[in-house]
Write a structure and sequence with these properties.
Blueprint (H helix, E strand, L loop, with lengths): L4 H4 L3 H17 L3 H8 L3 H8 L7 H11 L3 H6 L16 E4 L4 E5 L9 E8 L4 E4 L7 E9 L2 E5 L2 E5 L4 E6 L3 E4 L6 E8 L2
Antiparallel strand pairs: 1-2, 2-3, 3-10, 4-9, 5-8, 5-10, 6-7, 6-9
């Protein structure tokens, strides 16, 4: 169980992420109310995320990435140190959405100027994540299942992927990633900006 932020202080990644989210909003001259309207996220949740009082969920970050026109990897790389050409496996940033059972590892060395990136995703059995919009309309995704089974719904079509299967699609609207179980699923997500 996650300890209260008041007891332990904010997670360092959450603190840097919150500060970056506040910077992005300030760069555009938006109030919390304006960002809430654009993203569909409540003002109080946005405020708490910016102050690192909460660890943002994948769904929340996706909504904010959509508003700011960047992928989740781009956003997360902006809160990391200077980008490197090589990132050893042990140093690849891992981010966890405990509420949904989603673990995301940024495999590619981060660089905001590049169009492609690799991400390793892991969903616990029973995990079900819905994104109401893509972070960038027309985003190209290649989803390659390494272990387990994954259900991906895009443009109201459900795709069932087993170990070794790969799905390529462009994301224009809502998507859903679901691990029906009984085992966890591990997959590679190749993301290419349009």
């Amino acid at each position: 169980m996650k300890q209260d932020v008041a007891e332990t202080g904010p997670d360092p990644v959450d603190a840097r992420l919150g500060a970056r989210l506040a910077e992005l909003r300030a760069e555009r001259g938006w109030s919390l109310g304006e960002l809430a309207e654009r993203s569909g996220v409540s003002r109080s949740t946005l405020s708490r995320a910016e102050r690192a009082e909460i660890s943002p969920t994948a769904s929340l970050l996706n909504r904010l990435c959509s508003v700011y026109g960047r992928t989740m990897s781009q956003l997360l790389s902006e809160v990391e140190a200077e980008p490197a050409l090589l990132v050893p496996a042990a140093e690849q940033p891992v981010w966890e959405d405990r509420a949904s059972g989603f673990v995301r590892r940024s495999v590619s060395p981060p660089h905001t100027g590049l169009r492609g990136e690799l991400v390793e995703g892991r969903l616990a059995a029973g995990a079900d994540i819905g994104y109401d919009r893509p972070p960038v309309p027309g985003l190209e995704q290649h989803i390659w299942v390494l272990e387990g089974a994954l259900e991906v719904t895009a443009q109201e079509v459900e795709h069932r992927l087993g170990t070794g299967d790969c799905l390529r699609l462009r994301v224009w609207g809502p998507t859903r990633f679901r691990c029906a179980g009984p085992d966890d699923v591990r997959y590679v997500l190749a993301v290419v900006l349009p």
